[in-house]
Fold each of these.
Amino acid sequence: MLKSFWRSAAFAVAATASLSAGPTLAETGVDLDNKVVTIGAFTPVTGPVPFYAVLTHAAEAYFKMLNESGDADGWTFNYVTKDDGYDPARSVAVSRSLVEDDGVFALSAPIGTATNVAVLPYAKEAGVPVIGPVGGSSQFFEVPAVFPLLPDYGWSAASAAEYAANGLGHEKIALLWENDELGKSAKRGFDLVMEDLGLTPAESIPFDVKTTSFSAHIRRIQNSGAQTVLLYGSNANLAAALKAADLQGVDVAWFAPFFTADPSTLKLAGDLLEGVYFSSWLLPVSSDEPEVKAYRDAVATYFPNDPVGVLGLNGWSNAALFHKGFQLLLDSGDEITRDNLVKAMNTMTDAAVGGARGVTFSADDHRGTRQEGIIQYTDGDFVLVRDFQPYPDVAFNAAKGE
């Protein structure tokens, strides 16, 4: 009887304590009393691509700006970032630390394609949403709690080829593609849209990411009679190909992926970049749109030594995606939980997110970025020469097996 009494008393005390504990009852990473949400990301401070730090700096600048403005209904964002050295195995360990040691509510703008892919099984197991993974894998579209902004490179290549054919009136279109997932994705979309246009590729030439001499590739391009060349590789690859074409007197229209529409490419290619087109899901960094101007202003304030370019706008936009989703959750009036964040994200429709436009998610379709514009480098600036349009159906729908 006495034991039963003390057991009942102990239970009552514990229940009272838990009911009065406030934020300890909330979802992990959410402090309801102080209106603080803790989120995190892995990022390569060390390793082969430390310059990707500008992506994370831009994301940090976004949350710093938001915290100062109080524009998220008075909520503030505690953004925790940790170095993974761009090593997928370390990315998993860092993610585990962010979740289990730092108690993050979600991952926001974690950096890298291979690194994010490696983290997917753990994130799924831990029930942690990944909002805005900064990478370009079709695997991201297939996981219920992962919401990517970046498109499949096949959609971008399809957009570029379609513009070359219908916008420039070119029928002889060639592809130079990096022999890895980036280039293979581009080739899939390119082949699909060329077939849909009733055109045969003038050339389709793979190259290694470390390629520095494109002389042989350009000779093949010249012999093909190509009017347009799409190059899907790094900014260094693009600069090297432009130099080889210049030396051999090959005059064609060039297209490259969005991330090469950046001052870093200009440093490598110089005046040869004049006239190059870029199929891009992001607005030009020089855009007067308020969200892009806010990026330029915030980076100048919080990271004045960082270059203002497409890499930074990429990181900024992926951070903005978490804010948009969290605001949808707040507006819904639902309890602030991870499951409800996923539910809210799936209601996002035709949203402007940082430098992206038309961002849409649903429970069965996580292809967030659904349109691209065409940017051209001309007269010392990256300018939008064709407004945002939906991706060609033949390539976009292929990602869903339609």
Note: Residues 1-25 have pLDDT under 50 and may be disordered.
Amino acid sequence: MPNPQHQVVWAEIPVSDIEAARAFYSAVMKTDLTVDTSGPNPMVMFPTSDPEQGVAGHLYPGKPSQDGIGPTVHLLTPDDLETTADRVVEAGGKVLSPAIDIPAGSFIYTLDPDGNSVGWFHPKAA
């Protein structure tokens, strides 16, 4: 079997309060995240330009990580990392690292208000 185009299918971030988490991620991502109630639990969906082909994720009512112990989901930031870090703090999260450069761009590590580890990625200019 050949390797798939995308190894990650989607990401789920467990949160204790779906509406509070929606407000946090909407503020940091600078977009109004939508609630999907088509399944057994409400989910706050991360947007993509192509819902049929894009790899995204969602927030769901669940048991959050404790103090960042657990997987780290990296999300695309809508602008530079310094501005994103400011929005993380203003929205109730915590910044854990300075910008870390990698060949594809830069990212920071943060905690959301529930203690989930979240990386925010900014790609290099094309």
Note: The chain is about 15% helix and 30% strand.
Amino acid sequence: MEYEELIKYVDGYENLTDEEEKELIRVAKYITKEDKSGNYSVSLGNYHYENKEFDKALDYYEKAADIGNRDAIENIGYIWYYGRTGEVNIEKAYKYFKKAEDMGSLRASYKIADMYKNGYYFEKDYDKYVEIIKELYKKIRNETDLFKPLPEIFSRYAAIKKDEGDIDTAIRVYFIAKDYLAQKIVYDSFFGNYTVMKQIVKEIYELIDFDEEMFDLYDLFYLLETPNKVDFFYHSNLYMIESVMEGDKCIIKFNGETYNSTNDFFKNASIDGFKITEIYDELTDFDLIKEDDED
């Protein structure tokens, strides 16, 4: 590939051959030397973060943060908050989140809210947490940009409404967050998105009964945690997914492959070269197979 062709992959580095991937890294490193915005350094950091090479990711984020890139500053906050490089440092996390928040980062704002809720850096203050999340919800409730953190903020807001006893609102907001995130994952298969989706689905089915007659792809986060068989159609072809116990955990079998967890399944399962998450809205007629159905 020519440099010009490869550059466009810096922000969307999926579906590359091994050789293209090596060239991507080489070109991206070359670009970052002259990058005045920090955006390419962030993209290369994101590449290593996605591959869980967090030390390398931090190096690139720090280069971009030094020239004032907000995304890099925010991402460094996450690295220290979760201890991605082996050390949790809440004081550093707050420093970076606060700087990013002052630059307009909504993600940094809800992480600071979490710190009030959990008693990290601050004394525990649930009322302050609620105040921040409700203000963020007002800001983002009509958002249509799939790369805004609506699912994260909506799911927190829904949990607050549940705690307040407004179950109908909680359910409605959870479903909006789920639908929005499903659309986002088509374009962004970052592993953190699956963690958020799994939590949203879990919380939905703590509030309502599972409907065996009407469910979708992401409801498999609920079904595949225990042994089950599900079939569905894609372009008139029937497919089956099975979760079975192996020791003390459920593994998932689909399309000739085995996956060690629901996150692994959603991240990697594919049909005809397309990730199932990319074609989720083309998958139809999900059906939970009962033992009687197999007789």
Note: The mean pLDDT is 90.
Amino acid sequence: MKKLVLITLTSVSVLFAVMVVFNLQAANGSKESKPTVSGTALPDSIHKFVQRACMDCHSDDGNFMAKGKVNFSGWDKYDASKQMDKAKEICKEVSKNSMPPGKWRKNNPDKLPTPAEVEMICKWANSLQK
């Protein structure tokens, strides 16, 4: 019994220490220390498409893995170079029908990108410059 209590207390202490360290880094601005040049907001036509077909997963409230690839909630915080790279990757993925993924496609057939929207996304992606 004593061993179980000791293990539990140790685990809680380690977890607490990790939380304190990460909060201190955020409070000290360690992630914000590099000056960045913000990019631009999404054009209205792209924004409407993203709202319909992407934000379920690629937003602050979305899937952890998906928003790690691209998070449209913070798109305007990406610098211009990162926006260009992400936009080209988006074009590639929607062109291959890799995005949205199969399960989402099956559950949301009315929200799938049309060929015209895929073309619009790729034209927009190719128009971005570093």
Note: Residues 38 and 80 are 7 Å apart (CA to CA).
